[in-house]
Write a structure and sequence with these properties.
Order of helices and strands: HHEEEEHEHHEHEHEHHH
Radius of gyration: 19 Å
Bound molecules: zinc ion
CATH architecture of the domain at 86-251: 2-Layer Sandwich
Strand order of the largest sheet: 5-6-8-7
Helix content: 25-40%
Shape: globular
Number of helices: 10
Distance between the termini: 35 Å
Largest sheet: 4 strands, antiparallel
């Protein structure tokens, strides 16, 4: 029974997310979106046509912090990338920099992140180190072209079905945004493995990453929603405000966007 419910829930999410494919922007009508100062106050009131909502009738949910961003704009830090919402083969971030934290692999490309994410990653690694937690960065930006090679190698070794669960098809990888970094530690031999989630380092990341704008994008038991197995090492930068809202919700990013009514906001 639980499986049936999970399946129906998944269908609903896919239908909702699927229905907004092709929408290029979220309306920024000031009557529909809270202003920055209102967001900062943690509450806002909504005026409807010919009707004013009382001041004390506030929306106490996290106030749609992502509405000021465009989840279908590739260069937005809030961009939603998954199997239903791939990036184009031509998208490349224009502000990639080398991360200034300890890394595992030699490839210059994957030691890059977008500036804002690289800065936040350094802050997070430094804060962890102050608590005696040593993190290592393993794989950041990947171009569309690199993902083509990676996916094809995986298909050759493990077959296409496995490749689609464990790797990502070109365009469907968050690494192409320059906002995702896979992290690891000496305690798991610098590998990307599920065991990382139970290490001291993995637990620290799980509890603290959102303070620095990152979420664990593929949580345990959510493969039917995210499309990917549990990856305690894959961190996605969303910005501190949005990452904290997603963390507090306990939801995946996909579920969070549905829960927050993003579909009705963009489905005019
Ligand atoms: Zn990753």
């Amino acid at each position: 029974m639980r499986e049936v419910i999970a399946f129906l829930y998944r269908l609903t999410i896919l239908a909702v997310l699927g229905s907004v494919v092709g929408c290029q922007s979220i309306p920024t009508d000031p009557n529909e979106s809270p202003s920055q100062s209102q967001i900062d106050e943690g509450q806002y009131t909504v005026e409807r046509e010919g009707e004013e909502v009382a001041d004390n009738e506030t929306i106490d949910e996290s106030p749609s912090v992502f509405l000021k961003e465009d989840i279908f704009e590739p260069s937005s830090t809030a961009v939603l990338v998954n199997k239903q919402h791939p990036l184009s083969d031509s998208y490349e971030p224009d502000d990639l920099v080398l991360v200034e934290v300890p890394t595992v692999l030699e490839s210059v490309e994957i030691r890059q992140l977008r500036q804002v994410a690289a800065d936040s990653l350094k802050e997070m690694f430094d804060a962890a180190e102050e608590e005696g937690i040593i993190l290592l960065a393993r794989s950041g930006y990947r171009s569309y072209h690199t993902q083509v090679q990676l996916f094809n190698n995986y298909v050759e070794q493990h077959g296409e079905e496995a490749a689609n669960r464990y790797s990502a098809r070109p365009g469907e990888s968050e690494h192409q945004t320059g906002l995702a970094m896979d992290v690891t530690s000496e305690s798991v031999a610098k590998e990307l493995t599920e065991a990382f989630g139970e290490t001291e380092e993995g637990l620290w990341v799980k509890e603290n990453a959102h303070h620095f704008g990152f979420i664990i994008r593929y949580p345990e038991g959510k493969e039917s929603i995210t499309g990917y197995i549990y990856e305690p090492w894959h961190l996605r930068y969303l910005g501190q405000e949005l990452a904290t809202a997603v963390y507090d919700s306990g939801l995946t990013y996909e579920e969070f966007l549905v829960e927050e009514g993003i579909d009705s906001e963009i489905h005019q």
